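Exam prep: given the inputs below (a chain plus manganese (II) ion), describe the expected output before reading on.
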Amino acid sequence: MIDDTTGRGSLERIALISDVHGNLTALEAVLEDVDARGISRIFNLGDYVGKGPRGRQVVDMCRERCEVNIVGNWDDFLPNPDREFDSEALAWWLAQLSDGQGEWLRGLPFSHDFVMSGRRVRLFHASPTTAHRRVRFDHDEEEFLAMFANTAATGDGPEPTVVGYGDTHDPYYEVDRQKRTLFNTGSVGNCMDDPTPVYVIIEGVFGSAGEAPFSLQFVRVPYDVEAELAVAWDMGMPELEGYTAELRHGIYRGEMNNPGGPRYHRRVRTTSVA
Ligand SMILES: [Mn+2]
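Solution:
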């Protein structure tokens, strides 16, 4: 959109949220912050359900509030009627969903492309090939470059120069000399290391091929962790110990009993410090 008085495009902001994982308390806190900033466009990068207790309410709220909703790995595998692996917790999270929500989740688009300030932005949940392949903060150049490639899943539109994703619950921002920009939004409901809910605001001239200021901001939003845990407790959710480790301490449930301690963010150091 071009401002008639200055000829300069008007800057627009979009909130990017991801990995809410049934944590309605965190989602409400983040949406309140988004609203308070006067931002009306919200894009969701997936993983609405699992891990936390209120998947149904999270799905309902995101359907109402988010302009774009993208499929996450949990949204695909939890309601999959052909899923072979099951557990008490998976059955419980699935049972929280209302009729039709599983189909809605599984039918969500894989990726979403748009242009902002001359940059081609692409959003997906985890990787350009599948929502089930994880790309950690700690990756090499080949992995970095692969994030910008077209695949059967993304389609063969113009290749992006900016890629945003979620999945790892571990936010970061990375660029190269070709102006490629890769970022991870982190997680609203279940962030690792710093467990404070986090989301991203991107700002630029939406839909414009002309170069213009482009910015990206990570926003941490404190919320009532104990209120969220009390809901999970009252509802009798399985894996409450793991949920507590994640929400209170940012320690992934799969690592909470590691003898060497959690090492979610990067590989463990193998050389000694001089
Ligand atoms: Mn996730």
